[in-house]
Design brief:
heterodimer, A: 222 residues, mainly alpha, MetI-like fold, 11 helices, globular, B: Rossmann fold, 2 domains, 11 strands, 35% helix
């Protein structure tokens, strides 16, 4: 087992999930509560990574963050190093790639909160932030958990974006899925089995947590 | 005094009302689908009229402008000093009765807030429900708590959309008496939507009769309801 790659994957997934929840909660609330006609375009943009091949997204980000663009050069000057082929670059790519996995469960959860409750909170003077904090999140807690778990697992298993944007630098960008790819390429199936089993085990445990949480709240039809 | 002039479209339904509510209590009376709830939602600022769709809305309360769609002006629902109680009580299911009633009072210091919650629950005869959750309440209890929650911020305009439908007759009458007294003391303009003529008569209030989204009549309850009764009798005979 490549413990360094496992630790890097866990760190990447944790940081990505934390950033995604910070971004996705207000974004999902805006999509559900907002009235602007532009929100359909925003929602489509947020869902784009679902249908975009990971290698295509990785390529676009590689070009955007590289020295060929003014944005990439500005970032390099600002940070003192290019974002491509670094852990920070992987975080940026993972956040964009996993965005729909955080936004969509939250949108579904927030939209399921009865509009009459939202109206009541608005009339009682709740600001949008208070409405989200005191009403939407408590009533859509399972969606928040689903968003966190799906974002985490999706980042853990990410391959195309990581390879394109980060390459294969041990300790910096070599994640568990890159290790698995290398092991298979080297015909080391015993090691590949262990790596794959680790990723599978993590997925099963995390998904079970969502369903156990749902059951403990009174089941699917509660 | 509440003044409104509005034209709103909801699909093929047109709501077109221009009137002035001079009385502190006004009952909006009409059959289901007459536009009563739509009217209350527009008054609350929850629904908007769309510009460029031949819609418009101008609402003032005691001379203060709440909505003027021609200027794109609308005070947000939580800042209009307006409360609303709908037929479905819409209590927050994850909060206790106490927290529900206190929800609109977060700007107050805790002792003042608790005192206000206690007063409001006493007004609606629900002090014993303080620590209960909405799912443990009967329909009537939930409506009384919803009423307490709406009154707690001491609104200037109270909108009631068939709010007493789950209460039995005696409880409803007693509550209405206490409620009217409290609202008069606090100078709260109240608009109550109902399709029940008995409620309108019992309140003895000014009645606004809505028919298919149009203002059909306005005046003292007995007069308007008698005219409506005669109209229905003529149509049937």
């Amino acid at each position: 087992m490549d413990w360094q790659a496992l630790a890097l994957s866990l760190r990447l997934a944790t940081v990505t999930t934390a950033i995604l929840l910070t971004v996705a909660v207000p974004l999902a609330a805006l999509l559900v509560l907002g009235r602007s006609r532009w929100l359909a375009a925003v929602e489509a943009l947020a869902a784009l990574p679902l249908v975009l091949p990971p290698t295509v997204l990785g390529f676009f980000l590689l070009v955007l963050l590289g020295p060929r663009t003014a944005f990439g050069r500005a970032i390099t000057v600002l940070l003192g190093h290019p974002l491509a082929f670094s852990f920070s670059g992987l975080v940026v790519g993972s956040v964009i790639y996993s965005l729909p996995f955080a936004v969509q469960p939250l949108v579904a959860g927030f939209a399921a909160v009865p509009p009459a409750l939202v109206d009541a909170a608005r009339l009682l003077g709740a600001s949008p932030a208070r409405l989200v904090r005191t009403l939407l999140i408590p009533l859509a807690g399972r969606s928040l958990l689903a968003a966190a778990v799906l974002s985490f697992l999706h980042t853990m298993g990410e391959f195309g974006v990581v390879l394109m944007l980060g390459g294969d630098i041990p300790g910096a960008t070599r994640t568990l899925s890159i290790v698995l790819y290398n092991q298979v390429e080297n015909f080391d199936y015993a090691a590949a089995n262990r790596t794959a089993a680790t990723l599978l085990g993590l997925s099963v445990v995390a998904l079970a947590a969502i369903y156990v949480s749902g059951r403990s709240r009174g089941g699917r039809h509660a | 005094m509440l003044e409104l002039a509005l034209h709103a479209r909801r699909g093929s339904f047109n709501l077109q009302v221009e009137c002035c509510f001079a009385s502190e209590w006004t009952v909006v009376f009409g059959p289901s689908g007459a536009g009563k709830s739509s009217l209350l939602r527009l008054l609350a600022g929850l629904d908007l009229t769309e510009s460029g769709n031949q819609e418009h809305a101008r609402i003032t309360l005691d001379g203060n402008l709440l909505t003027d769609s021609s200027r794109g002006f609308r005070i947000k629902p939580g800042r209009r000093q307006t409360s609303m109680v709908a037929q479905q009580s819409a209590l927050f299911p994850h909060l206790s009765v106490e927290a529900n009633v206190a929800y609109g009072l977060h700007h107050l210091e805790r002792p003042t807030r608790l005192k206000r919650v206690s007063e409001m629950l006493e007004l609606v005869d629900a002090t014993d429900l303080l620590s209960r959750r909405p799912q443990d309440l009967s329909g009537g209890e939930a409506q009384r708590v919803a009423l307490a929650r709406a009154l707690a911020p001491q609104p200037r305009l109270l909108l009631l959309d068939e709010p007493l439908s789950a209460l039995d007759g005696a409880a409803s009458d007693a509550l209405l008496v206490r409620l009217q007294l409290w609202l008069n003391q606090h100078h709260v303009q109240t608009v109550m939507a109902t399709h029940d003529a008995t409620d309108a008569l019992a309140l003895g209030a000014e009645v606004l009769l809505l028919h298919e989204g149009r203002l059909a009549a306005q005046g003292p309850a007995a007069e308007v309801l008698a005219a409506e009764r005669d109209r229905i009798v003529r149509r049937l005979s």
